Backbone:
């Protein structure tokens, strides 16, 4: 057993363990933190494979941005865990049966022989140079069309998110700055000329 | 080989459409609410110019041209489908103008999202690579999810959007899983290279078949074929009618291209077709049975048309199942004419609706022939066409499919299709009975609606195509012959 194999099995065991913890933990925050752990170990495995760019971006994007946001949401929403877990044990058995059948079928059909590292695909990647560089070159030459479409998908996500969540509320106190700025004294203050009140004599109540 | 710069010419329609959406998105921000109509006209203009550009590009390029390192293919099939997608979307948007205004969703984002969906469809239709197929599909689906949820004040819409989103995401996951299996087996993502790897015997066939199952499941989800149909009725009913129209029409054409590219051009190689053909036969039979039977029990017209969609998808899948050129041509004819019917059907519901009134229950059509004789007549044409009664075009569509499957010896399936079409005719004819033989009830649309010229043309086209179907069919045949590599 080489050093890499040992590291791989350790990391794989941590991934499986933390994955199970995500499903079984009773506290949503614990589940999210276990997910962070599994992301970290997954990026470790990618480093082992020599895909350093993917490993770094997994940590930056998923752990740094997505999971932090996720934790915020979990903490802000007061989720009733007890109610979410209702019927958990009722669904567990049928779920396990279905998953077991699926797993057995997959193992029967595929077996382990398709997942070895012998046929690892290094298509298009120049092994001699850095991973980030080869990825960048492929993305901006051969896959430029697909890359642009992916950018359009992000634009759609932005438009959809803003279009669905932004709405004028009747009760907000927002004032248009330009209206505020252009307001003149005459718009706000009305000078009324009134005849002076006749002075009343003292004690005349 | 196409030179580096001339490949940009070939995707000029996509480039134009993307530029136009971005421009419309920004222009709309600066328009006061009273001038929002400008956004509408710009949208229509963008769609029509795109259609013209597609026509110019396709007619000048010879045969199938593959550009961008195999990511994109420009052929006659993509040209025809792109033009139809643009026109159908433009017609659909023209019906929904008043509907949107009455529901306070006549907003710039609505039109930009519809155009983004169109862009996604164009990308899908001329994809030559699993990556582009998937990205186009996601671009289309994401825009549609947002459009379904667009009416924020409607609880039904939000529910429909969540269901559509969750099930659509599962379907995309299945599809990606299948694609990753194909990649794992052949080491390629480009359609031609996958085929080369398979025919050279470099592919792991077990793994490929395993991936094929997932691909069929994903395609079944996207088409809405039984047993992956659960989202269709809820989404059709819950979404604003204008969005239901969009979902029901143009994306079906894109789905057709998706199936042709993925199942025929990629996984048609070797003996793989013998593997997916029975799977599709099961999907088709189940869709025909369930769609037609459950539609009878519906009282909501949108829901009824959703189940009718399921049964129509069953017919479409029958055409795919044959795996022959005749079958695919019949399927293309079917999907084109079906999209025309759907646009007309939902368009009519849009025109009859008003503020606070959806006109989507069967009840609302009672005695329509007294209050709106012309609309009732057009709806009669649409229902006849969907039921497949001659001389409407729907009859020919069904006939061509049946011919193609009988020629392959699937007499049992053909019989099943005919029997369930007969059962299905009941619920189409019931609408006609309600319109023509019943007295108007309190909920029938009473006040006059402005008749739409486009609507009349659309409805009469169903009749005209039914009287002279041969030119459209020969067009479909020719397009399939020149563009689709069958094995």
Residues:
């Amino acid at each position: 057993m080489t050093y890499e194999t040992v590291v791989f099995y350790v990391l794989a065991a941590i991934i499986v363990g933390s994955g199970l913890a995500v499903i079984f933990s009773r506290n949503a925050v614990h589940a999210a933190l276990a997910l962070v752990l599994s992301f970290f170990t997954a990026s470790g495995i990618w480093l082992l494979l020599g895909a350093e760019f993917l490993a770094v971006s997994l940590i930056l994007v998923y752990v740094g941005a997505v999971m932090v946001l996720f934790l915020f949401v979990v903490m802000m929403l007061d989720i009733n865990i007890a109610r979410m877990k209702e019927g958990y044990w009722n669904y567990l058995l049928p779920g396990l049966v279905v998953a077991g059948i699926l797993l057995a079928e997959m193992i029967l059909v595929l077996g382990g022989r398709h997942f070895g590292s012998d046929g690892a695909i290094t298509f298009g990647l120049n092994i001699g140079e850095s991973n980030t560089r080869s990825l960048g070159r492929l993305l901006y030459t051969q896959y430029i069309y697909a890359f642009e479409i992916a950018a359009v998908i992000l634009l759609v996500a932005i438009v959809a998110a803003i279009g669905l969540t932004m709405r004028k509320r009747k009760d907000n106190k927002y004032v248009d700055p330009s209206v505020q700025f252009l307001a003149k004294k005459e718009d706000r203050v009305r000078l009324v000329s009134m005849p002076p009140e006749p002075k009343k004599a003292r004690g005349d109540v | 080989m196409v030179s580096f710069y001339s490949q940009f010419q070939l995707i000029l329609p996509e480039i134009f459409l993307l530029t136009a959406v971005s421009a419309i998105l920004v222009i709309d921000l600066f328009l006061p609410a009273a001038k929002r109509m400008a956004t509408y006209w710009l949208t229509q203009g963008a769609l029509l110019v795109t259609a013209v550009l597609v026509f110019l590009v396709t007619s000048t390029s010879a045969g199938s041209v593959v550009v961008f390192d195999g990511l994109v293919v420009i052929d006659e099939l993509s040209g025809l489908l792109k033009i139809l997608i643009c026109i159908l979307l433009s017609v659909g948007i023209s019906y929904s103008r008043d509907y949107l205004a009455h529901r306070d969703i006549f907003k710039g984002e609505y039109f930009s999202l519809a155009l983004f969906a169109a862009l996604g469809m164009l990308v899908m239709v001329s994809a030559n690579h699993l990556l582009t197929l998937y990205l186009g599909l996601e671009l289309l689906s994401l825009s549609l999810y947002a459009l379904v949820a667009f009416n924020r004040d409607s609880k039904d819409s939000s529910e429909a959007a969540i269901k559509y989103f969750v099930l659509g995401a599962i379907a995309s996951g299945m599809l990606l899983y299948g694609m990753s299996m194909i990649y794992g087996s052949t080491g390629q993502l480009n359609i031609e290279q996958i085929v080369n790897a398979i025919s050279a015997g470099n592919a792991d066939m077990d793994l490929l078949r395993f991936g094929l199952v997932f691909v069929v499941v994903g395609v079944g989800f996207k088409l809405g074929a039984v047993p992956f149909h659960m989202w269709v009725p809820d989404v059709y009913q819950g979404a604003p009618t204008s969005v239901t129209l969009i979902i029901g029409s143009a994306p079906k054409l894109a789905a057709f291209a998706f199936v042709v590219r993925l199942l025929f051009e990629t996984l048609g190689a070797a003996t793989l077709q013998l593997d997916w053909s029975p799977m599709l036969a099961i999907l088709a039979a189940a869709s025909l049975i369930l769609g037609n039977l459950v539609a009878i029990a519906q009282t909501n017209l949108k829901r009824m048309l959703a189940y009718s969609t399921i049964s129509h998808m069953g017919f479409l899948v029958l055409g795919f199942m044959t795996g022959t050129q005749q079958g695919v041509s019949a399927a293309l004819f079917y999907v084109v004419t079906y999209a025309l019917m759907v646009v007309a059907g939902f368009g009519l519901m849009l025109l009859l609706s008003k503020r606070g009134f959806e006109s989507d229950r069967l009840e609302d059509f009672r005695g329509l022939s007294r209050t709106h004789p012309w609309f009732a007549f057009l709806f009669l044409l649409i229902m006849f066409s969907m039921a497949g009664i001659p001389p409407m075009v729907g009859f020919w569509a069904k006939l061509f499919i049946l011919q193609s499957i009988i020629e392959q010896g699937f007499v049992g399936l053909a019989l099943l299709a005919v029997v369930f079409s007969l059962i299905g005719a009941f619920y189409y004819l019931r609408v006609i009975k309600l319109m023509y033989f019943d007295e108007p009830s309190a909920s029938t649309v009473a006040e006059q609606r402005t008749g739409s010229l486009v609507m009349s043309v659309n409805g009469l086209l169903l009749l005209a195509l039914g009287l002279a179907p041969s030119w459209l069919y020969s067009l479909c045949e020719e397009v399939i012959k020149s563009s689709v590599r069958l094995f």
Remarks:
- Chain B has 22 helices and two strands.
